[in-house]
Amino acid sequence: MTISACLLLGSLAVALVAPRILPPLTRSGRAPRLAVTVWALSIAGVAAAWLASPLLLLVDFLTPSTSLMRECLTVVGGALGSREDLGAQALLLAVAVIGAVRVAWKIAAGCRAARRVARRHIEGARIAGRRRPGLDAYVLDSAQRAAYCLPGRGRTIVLSTATLAALTPSQLAAVLAHEHAHLGGHHHLLLRLSHGLSSALPRVRLFSVGAGEIAGLLEMCADDAAARRHGRVAVIGALAALAESPAPAEALAAGGRTAAVRITRLLAPQDHAATIVVGLTLSAAGVFVLLGPAATVLLAARGLNLCPVLTA
Amino acid sequence: MRELGELEAVVMDRLWEWGTSATVRDVVDELQQHRQIAYTTAMTVMEHLYTKGWLARERDGKAWRYEPTATRAECSARLMREALDSDADHAEVFSHFLAQMSAAESRTLRAVLRRMVRRNHA
After folding, report:
1. Who wins on pLDDT, A1 or A195?
2. Pick from B54, B82, B112: which is nearest to A121 by CB?
3. Closest to A246 (Cβ–Cβ): which among B78, B83, B103?
4. A2, A99, A166, A298: which has the fewest Cβ within 10 Å?
């Protein structure tokens, strides 16, 4: 098999397998940074392979050796007539180009729209919000509790007056540390990419499940950062205080599940053995995703035919 | 650029406080009591605010009279609605400390918390 075919088939394998084996490992929130890394590598690797698929297919078609693609297409072409395999190749290439361009365009458009919304909202918060001495955030006058950040060049944190009234000073510090962890870690880049892929290709479970898992895990990473600086009690207290204020009935709320996992995780005693086991398993998965393509390229370059069926 | 942004906030703050329409001259006279600001700067800022929809204006002889298009409370409410609107396409722009939950989820969560706190104290 050529390198291209291997990379494409390998990406297909990751896309099918990862959303089945990763969630049980990552959902508990042990080793969240490692979990995010493995999800990100899987998603980015598959997306990169698929966006590069036109190029990979072209290389595959032009390679003089036997390839899985050519075998399949020759069978199809044989049924249609001798010159038809060229037409089938061109068709496949065209489909790949259109698909790749469409996905890339959707993601870019999504990022542009998100930047526009963020910029407008930050301007709004800057004008309608007030500053308090010693607080690096904009405060909006509202009876509804809210604490959020807007990432990107604005790097803005917004709190409502109701939030300030509900939190003790240490809880407030924990909330700010949590938001700063998001801003400092540039989590929004990963969130926008995974969300963009999930909406461009919603039926690919790797992207849809991955986007949700990554979002939850990044919250846990930020929780850990806040807990390291201000203690777990402050973070739990802040979560509990802000959980007092439910959303209006129409709001689509999946927040409850994530909040429960976050609080349970922070309250649970440290189980180092379990964390190590999960960490090692995730590392193995990560190594597989990362080195799989590299090993493929290496083996193919050394002329090792990976599929004995095609040596005929 | 950042100074202009800060000036926008100051100008809106004054107009909201006054509650009536004002000319650029009114605003400049007020602001010059606390800072150095040129008439043209204030005029530019207020024109920007008008273009961006924060201010409405009508002719008063040779000058424009500006007034806010909404109260500060209305603007705050709109911003909060936008941030909490989890249905929207751009929901991932806002990174909430605690995501939205329904009243039922809130009750369940508080029950979970009470149980866990009791267990921890036991």
Report:
1. A195
2. B82
3. B103
4. A298
Amino acid, res. B46 = M
Place of tokens 């990022």: A111
**More confident: B39 or A90:** B39
Predicted pLDDT of residue A59: 74
* More confident site: B15 or A69: B15
Residues with Cβ < 8 Å from B40, sequence gap 6 or more? none
Chain A CB contacts of B114 under 8 Å are none
Kind plus residue range of the DSSP H or E element containing B26? helix B24-31
Contact A39, A290 (CB under 8 A): no
Contact criterion met (CB < 8 Å) for A160 and B80: yes
What's the rounded Cα separation, in Å, for the pair A197 and A194? Answer: 5
- When mean pLDDT is compared across A62-71, A91-100, A177-186, B104-113, the lowest value belongs to A62-71
Handedness of CA A272, A275, A281, A283 (dihedral sign): negative
Q: Which residue of A has its CA nearest to B14?
A: A127
Task: Residue A198: name the closest of A218, A177, A183, A212 by CA.
Answer: A212
pLDDT in tens, A253-291: 455 567 778 888 888 877 888 888 888 988 888 888 877
Res A250: pLDDT: 46
**pLDDT band (50, 70, 90) for residue A52:** confident
* The model's pTM: 0.84
Compute the distance between CA of residue B85 and CA of residue A100 in angstroms, rounded to an integer.
31
Q: What is the average pLDDT value for chain A, to the nearest integer?
A: 82
DSSP states along chain A: --HHHHHHHHHHHHHHHHHHHHHHHHTT-SSHHHHHHHHHHHHHHHHHHHHTHHHHHHHHHH-SS--HHHHHHHHHHHHH-TTHHHHHHHHHHHHHHHHHHHHHHHHHHHHHHHHHHHHHHHHHHHHHSEEETTEEEEEE--SS--EEEE-SSS-EEEEEHHHHHHS-HHHHHHHHHHHHHHHHTTHHHHHHHHHHHHHHSTT-HHHHHHHHHHHHHHHHHHHHHHHHHH-HHHHHHHHHHHHTSPPPTTS---HHHHHHHHHHHHHSPP-HHHHHHHHHHHHHHHHHHHHHHHHHHHHHHTT--S-GGGG-
B72 touches chain A (CB under 8 A): yes
Which residue type, as a one-letter code, is found at position A284?
A: A
* Residue A55 token pair: 């190029």
- B102/A260 touch (CB, cutoff 8 Å), yes or no: no
